[in-house]
């Protein structure tokens, strides 16, 4: 993985990165760095009320941010059975999670990825990163490094040199408490 160390260093320094996911490039940052989160929202021109997804290499990386005690054992098992994979779950959030991550919600969107390059980033960084599509609001999501450079090249985003997966649709989003599908994947 060509520039993994550069990308992890960028995260540690509070910078925004772009990286390939299952279907499109994402942009993200350290979910515990308020300035990095503000920079990400600025790059995306994204309202802070919308919140962000956390993407991780394992459920263990998500535990500091999510409150599984508010879910039943069956609900937790359903979540675990879908991971790693392209299902994002809305789950109860711990109060220590920064409001810029959750937006206007009292829950948080989380996913354990199966994408090897994102897993490598999260493992090397030691925790999850935020995830939202790598595009300016209103434009199509980027599926290549070239497209990321065209849309976000002048924003200072550090781009991970990798390939997106084979998905043509965004990841499915499901509510852990109700089981309802909020977005088809």
Question: How is the topology of this model organized?
Answer:
Layout: H1 4-12, E1 17-20, E2 25-28, H2 34-44, E3 53-56, H3 59-62, H4 73-82, E4 87-92, H5 99-102, E5 107-112, H6 116-125, E6 129-133, H7 145-152, E7 158-159, E8 172-175, E9 181-183
Helix pairs in contact: 1-6
Description of the molecule:
- A hairpin with a 5-residue loop joins strand 8 (172-175) and strand 9 (181-183).
- The two termini are 28 Å apart.
- By secondary structure, the chain is α/β, with parallel strands linked by helices.
- The chain has one domain: DHBP synthase, CATH 3.90.870.
- It has helices spanning 4-12, 34-44, 59-62, 73-82, 99-102, 116-125, 145-152; strands at residues 17-20, 25-28, 53-56, 87-92, 107-112, 129-133, 158-159, 172-175, 181-183.
- 43% of the residues are buried.
- The chain has a nine-stranded mixed sheet with strand order 7-1-2-6-3-5-4-8-9, sandwiched between helices.
- The chain is globular.
- Its EC number is 2.7.7.87.
- One of its GO terms (molecular function) is ATP binding.
- One of its GO terms (biological process) is regulation of translational fidelity.
- It is an enzyme of class 2 (transferase).
- Pfam families: Sua5_yciO_yrdC.
